[in-house]
Amino acid sequence: MHEVWTISETYEGRIKEVSLELLARGRALADTLGVALGTVVIGYKIPKTELNSLIEHGADSVYVADDPKLSSFTCNTYSNVLVQLFAAHKPQIVVSAATTTGRTLMPYVAVKTHAGLTADCTGLAIEENTQNLLQTRPAIGGNILATIKTPDHRPQMATVRPRSTKILAPDSSRTGSIEYIPISEDWFSSEVEVLGMRALEGQQGAIDEADIVVSGGKGLKKKDNFKLIEKLAVALGGEVGASRDAVDRGWEAYPHQVGLSGKTISPRLYMAAGISGAIQHLAGIKTAKCIVAINSDEHANIFDLADFGIVGDLFTVIPEILKRLESRSEA
Amino acid sequence: MHIIVLVKQVPETSDVQMDKETGTMIRSSSSSIINPLDLYALEAALTIKDVKGARVSVITMGPAGAIKVLKEAIAMGCDDAVHLTDRAFAGSDTWATSYILAQAIKKLGLPDLILCGERATDGDTAQVGPAIASWLSLPAVTYTSKIEQIEINSIIAERLIEEGYQKVKVALPALMTVVKEIGIVRLPTLKGKKKAMASSIPQWNAHDIEADPSFIGLKGSPTRVVKIETPKVSRNCTLVHVEDEASMSVAMDSLFAFLNDRDFLQKGGKKHA
Ligand SMILES: Cc1cc2nc3c(=O)[nH]c(=O)nc-3n(C[C@H](O)[C@H](O)[C@H](O)COP(=O)(O)OP(=O)(O)OC[C@H]3O[C@@H](n4cnc5c(N)ncnc54)[C@H](O)[C@@H]3O)c2cc1C
Ligand SMILES: Nc1ncnc2c1ncn2[C@@H]1O[C@H](COP(=O)(O)O)[C@@H](O)[C@H]1O
Hints:
- The complex is a heterodimer.
- Chain A is of the alpha/beta class.
- Helix content of chain A is 28%, strand content 27%.
- Chain A has helices at 17-33, 48-56, 75-89, 102-113, 226-236, 244-248, 279-282, 302-305, 314-330, and strands at 4-8, 10-11, 14-15, 37-43, 61-66, 93-97, 116-121, 123-126, 133-139, 144-149, 156-160, 177-180, 192-198, 212-216, 239-242, 269-273, 290-295, 308-311.
- Chain B is an alpha/beta fold.
- Chain B folds into two domains: 2-215, Rossmann fold (3-Layer(aba) Sandwich), CATH 3.40.50; 235-273.
- The longest helix of chain B has 17 residues, at 245-261.
- In chain B, 47% of the residues are buried.
- Chains A and B meet through helix 3, helix 4, strand 7, strand 9 and strand 10 of A and strand 3, helix 3, helix 4, strand 9 and strand 10 of B.
- Strand 18 (308-311) of chain A pairs parallel with strand 15 of chain B, so a sheet runs across the interface.
- Adenosine monophosphate (AMP) binds at residues 6-8, 35, 37-38, 41, 59-62, 94, 97, 101, 116-117, 119-120, 123-129 of chain B.
- Flavin-adenine dinucleotide binds at residues 217-219, 243-246, 257-262, 274-276, 278, 280-281, 284, 294-297, 300, 313-315 of chain A.
């Protein structure tokens, strides 16, 4: 029976969390179909413990392409690996993360394999009678949910938004196979060469895969005040986001921008302070699990999408939240 | 150097309001604009033109009205444009769309560089760019935030990825998609507007680009939309007001109960656990 596959991503030799989320998705689909769940890992010197963790989190078979020339992602080369693997194993479903890597690689592969691909899904299910994959995704700024299927082409491919799935609890008694696939020189193209990495400015990490994101907007009034947002983010164990107005004013760097011309994110908790909730901002947070907003204007749009709203001055409210958080951790 | 920029016409969203009752989008008018993220691709191309000299061509696929976005691109400083329009293109998914655009690029002649926006604000897939590169078997560099160096045969650029900025060197010809950080979008000039008005933009149909009929339109699209739902936006917000010390204390109690119920307070307290 044709397997369900996920594409696992690694960074610096470690499996990324989002790849474990994909296994939870894949496991559910494979169980419904009664087939095995495979996962592909492309990289260099991925430790055995990391590969085993894929099995512990739901994979039945792990296909590994390991070579120094695969150590960082380049689209053409990784695509060549996948195209060859698809031809050999004919998976019926392939799920990848809607990360910068997945959203680059999957469309490239979909063209080469004449497969249908649905971007940035938040829901995947199997249609009862046809056994087709039903792929649900937000579109038009999150204002509609579209369900899409690929009746006549295989594999059925989808990218899945990070943080939209809970990771399965690791089960160390699970067994599975790890197969190193023979390296083929034909894979490698030298058209793209990775020269290096530069870290994001400041101390904050990426918001794309963060559990909690605390964002500030024009209501912060000046750059210096953004420290309040940073403090709150740190205290909650989250990352810092910003509205476009805050980014355009240079209060926060572009990688932190949330919304239509920034990032679309699905954190467990999104906290917005001094953000009015323009439609372009809301487009980036429609799939956040929970939204808390602080705004002095009780008619601010952000409250329409929020689960919890505080109408008040953020300059008094945030310090009070920080005080409470501090006293909690001291207790 | 020849650069082709792909721009899409999308519905205007900036004056869209949400209907609070139904949670649907109220479009004040169905006016269409250049996909805002494609403006950055145009800007990147025109910057290269300013610095190195280049011919910049623009292509769009869309209904008759889509010619407007091409005129706008010429007004910004692009040299020429092609409008792909044919009833047979209707219903194309990203697979079919990218095929049509790739065919048009072939007809126009493979340029040194193809630039796309990161994603379109309506479809929001970010798939068309890399897919075109695949049809043309070109290298794809996505999420480009900075072009550092342009040589005859290569470009050094930075990509904004989850872990930071990745620096890459890509051999030309190549396809790149760009993010907002690439530059500040210029406005159309008067001279450009005149040029746009005077220019006649060729329209190509499926036959002109020698498209395989089984690869285009709804029929040529592997994916099918089977259902559209409008999720309700209202989340039944618990609203608390802070006006003085007493209301602050009530608000905080209620906020912390809310956060605690949903397990959001573990991380902050973890260091002492
Ligand atoms: C094509 C396009 C793309 C766009 N993309 C994005 C995008 O990706 N992301 C994005 O965010 N925007 C985007 N925008 C811009 C968007 O339309 C809004 O202009 C922007 O989101 C507003 O940012 P803001 O909420 O910080 O500022 P404002 O709308 O000015 O809101 C500030 C809020 O702060 C509140 N406030 C002020 N002082 C206080 C205080 N002391 N305490 C509490 N609250 C206070 C005010 O009541 C107000 O609601 C885009 C626009 C366009 C046209
Ligand atoms: N119909 C189209 N005509 C021209 N370019 C397009 C079209 N559709 C998509 N593109 C290009 O592909 C990018 C990504 O679009 P999408 O995959 O729809 O999110 C856009 O920013 C455009 O540069």
